[in-house]
Amino acid sequence: MSEVKLGRIGVVVYDVKSAMEHYTKVYGITDWSVETIEENNAVSYGRKGIKASWTSAIGSTSNITFELVQPLSGESPFMEHLRTKREGICFLRVITDPTRPSYVKRCYVGGGRSFYDTREYLGGFLLEMSTDMDERPEAVEGILPTQGIYHFGVLVHDVLKTLPFYRDIFGIERFECKTWETGFGRLDDSMYRGEKVDHGYFTAQGHCADFGFEIIQCNHGPSHYNREFFDILGPGIHHIFPWMVATQDYSTPAEAEAAWTRVIELMSDEGMSLCMGSPLRGGAAEFGYFDTFDNLGGYLIEGVIRREAPAEEFASPDWVIEY
User: Fold this and answer.
1) Are 199 and 220 in contact (CB under 8 A)?
2) Which of 10, 92, 96, 243 lies 20 to 30 A from 126 at CA?
3) Of 207, 229, 90, nearest to 151 (Cα)?
4) Contact between residue 148 and residue 64 where contact means Cβ atoms under 8 Å apart
5) SS3 assignment for the chain
6) CA distances from 216 to 70, 75, 278, 306 (A)
């Protein structure tokens, strides 16, 4: 199993102050470390003496750390992301021994940090490698509880061609592959923007020490994946999955349903209603994406409720890839 742990999620935004307000509301983060960096001698794609500036705001829930970055001037990976892909998850900081495949090159060294250009290999995001984990508070209180990152949903051109790079870079050696398409037992009742739809997509899921990836390739039909992300922005991190309701963790199924419904209502009241989702696996579970794209900076949040164990024929992946 991969020993790589998640350190930070790096989100590029237009207005860091406005973004912080939304993160406080959604995640309950109130303690922010804010700094403006002026870099006069960075190295960008091998060119020296590069000038750039950006404002960084770092804040955490008890189990997730975010770094919000507002580029101010000059050439940096943050400015490049903002001007080519707009707001979004630009990089992940991972806690690992900083060894890496020889084909993974530094693209930027500046502000005391190094970023590696993994966009072509992993699907639209950079990596920062570190051995230091940020301190996190014991608890925060927002309208969306977080339990860590179950996975990042990454949209790519070709899932199967991408998997060897996740093996090389993260050390993930097992991927469960499954096609999700409208139909009982898979996507029981697909919804996109309030309308029933017929769509499908192919996925592979693999896990590191304390987080995972769902690597996604669109197949057919309208979805947020293609219509509002991939067709416009190309490969990238589309969503994070930090919250799940498991019925067995509650006294009764009704209590679990109430917890699920309450968060959906609170998020909807703040203008972040579900924009895509479906019951799954013959009604055993349900997922939905909260439309946090504008408020949090270019990504959605996934929530899941697991109501019961699925039937065997609905539980299994289509196949498993092991390296």
Assistant:
1) yes
2) 243
3) 207
4) yes
5) CCCCEEEEEEEECCCHHHHHHHHHHHHCCCCCEEEEEEEEEEEECCEEEEEEEEEEEEEECCCCEEEEEEEEEECCHHHHHHHHHCCEEEEEEEECCCCCCCCCCEEEEECCEEEECCHHHHHCCEEEEECCCCCCCCCCCCCCCCCCCCEEEEECCCHHHHHHHHHHHHCCCEEEEEEEEECCCCECCCEECCEECCCEEEEEEEECCCCEEEEEEEEECCCHHHHHHHHHHCCEEEEEEEEEEEHHHCCCHHHHHHHHHHHHHHHHHCCCCEEEEEEEHHHCEEEEEECCHHHHHCCEEEEEEECCCCCHHHHCCCEEEEC
6) 28, 31, 16, 21
> Residue 209 is encoded by which pair of tokens?
């020490």
Residue type, 54: W
Residues of the chain with CATH 3.10.180.10: 5-130, 149-322
Task: Region of 50 please: left (phi>0), alpha (psi -120 to 50) or beta.
Answer: beta
Q: pTM of whole model > 0.90?
A: yes
Structure tokens at 272: 């972040």
Report the chain (323 residues): mean pLDDT per 10 consecutive residues.
94 99 98 97 95 98 98 97 98 86 92 95 97 92 96 99 97 97 98 98 98 98 98 98 97 97 98 98 98 98 98 95 97
Let me know if domain 149-322 sits in CATH 3.10.180.10. Answer: yes
**CATH superfamily placement of domain 5-130:** 2,3-Dihydroxybiphenyl 1,2-Dioxygenase, domain 1 (3.10.180.10)
| Residue 12 · residue 90 · CB < 8 Å | yes
The strand pair at 191-192 and 274-280 is best described as antiparallel
- The whole-angstrom separation of Cα 235 and Cα 157 is 7
